[in-house]
Design brief:
The protein is an alpha/beta fold. The chain has ten helices and ten strands. Strands 1-2-3-6-7-8-9-10 form an eight-stranded parallel barrel, surrounded by four helices.
Length: about 325
């Protein structure tokens, strides 16, 4: 009887890992800091992983996911060579801290589709190099509950015809390890939702996944140039329109989406825009698996417009715009 029970549990666990993530399950925050500066930066002087304090704060706010930016060169100092053991240990320690707090973790190489500022898909940094990196990462985190693979932050100044083969090679390398973790695949043009159909869709639709457990990633800000670098949100309506158009595309093409970055200041038009975007995804649970707000982090300056790291006075106003209807969606029970 015990042997039968163990076999049944193993079968159920395997099925659970292979199944697509529940719609709207990801409601989280980018905790930035581990990607700061470049090679040779000293831990806790030039870059840092999230503190237990900030992890516990966001977990207490009923968010359930951290998108964790890291630096590829720091984790793998030499292409096609083993991951750096010290940096890998730091990453694993941070992941354990977040998982113990009840937060899922999206591992995010925050490299803009480059390695040492050289684009992926070139003679110097090949698609195979990128696939090798993800194979090694997948071997460390394969099939661990609550761990997800965000292939790359914001490819830009490269066509989708260059990026898609790299992304596809990484997906294939991950699956060859036996890992069934959710994979999150960005488009080009800074992963812009607004530019998706023009710049990315035709090529990125070619991405396939043997495990059928991936989503496309989008970013969308609300300021004048959609960069997220201004403290006003005059284009909030355009940002919402971009989300709605992506929703239509996802439904038409039977794909899933994830909003990896969006944000705004505490100004009223930004707060409303943030809430409207969250609500749009909450009402499209059939195609959106969720979102992570940009940004928070122990070292982020208090004056940064999008920063929702709490102050000595408590929560930032943007948090209330995120904690709206749909946060307690029962489809996410057991996340």
């Amino acid at each position: 009887m015990r042997m039968i029970t163990r076999s049944l549990l193993a079968l159920l666990l395997s099925a659970s890992m292979a199944a697509p993530a529940s719609a709207t399950c990801f409601r989280g925050i980018n905790l930035s800091g581990a990607e700061f500066n470049g090679r040779g930066a000293k831990i806790n002087e030039k870059y840092t992983y999230p503190s237990q304090k900030i992890i516990d704060y966001f977990a207490s706010k009923k968010l359930n996911t951290v998108r964790l930016p890291i630096l590829w060169e720091r984790l793998q100092p030499i292409l096609n060579q083993p991951l750096d053991p010290d940096e890998l240990a730091r990453l694993k320690t941070s992941v354990v801290q977040m998982r113990k707090a009840g937060l899922g973790v999206i591992i995010d190489p925050h490299n803009f589709a480059t390695y040492d500022d050289i684009q992926i898909g070139t003679r110097v940094v090949s698609n195979a190099d990128f696939a090798d990196f993800w194979r090694r990462v997948a071997e460390e985190f394969a099939n661990q509950d609550g761990i997800y693979f965000g292939l790359m932050n914001e490819p830009f100044h490269m066509p989708a015809t260059q990026w898609q083969p790299a992304a596809s090679a990484a997906v294939a390398a991950i699956r060859e390890t036996g890992a069934k973790n959710l994979i999150i695949v960005p488009g080009v043009e800074w992963t812009s939702a607004r530019e998706w159909e023009r710049a990315s869709a035709t090529e990125m639709i070619k991405v396939t996944d043997p495990a059928n457990n991936f989503a496309f990633e989008f970013h969308q800000y609300l300021d004048s140039d959609f960069s997220g670098t201004h403290d006003t949100c005059p284009r909030a309506a355009d940002a919402l329109d971009a989300i709605n158009k992506v929703t239509d595309w996802l439904r038409t093409n039977k794909r899933r989406g994830f909003l990896g970055e969006f944000g705004g200041s505490g100004k009223p038009e930004c707060l409303k825009g943030i809430a409207d975007m969250v609500q749009a995804m909450n009402t499209a649970k059939d195609v959106w698996i969720g979102w992570t707000y940009w940004v928070a982090g122990d070292w982020w300056p208090a004056t940064e417009a999008n920063n929702i790291t709490p102050t000595k006075d408590g929560d930032r106003p943007q948090l209330a715009s995120l904690l709206g209807p749909g946060l307690e969606d029962k489809s996410c029970a057991g996340f």
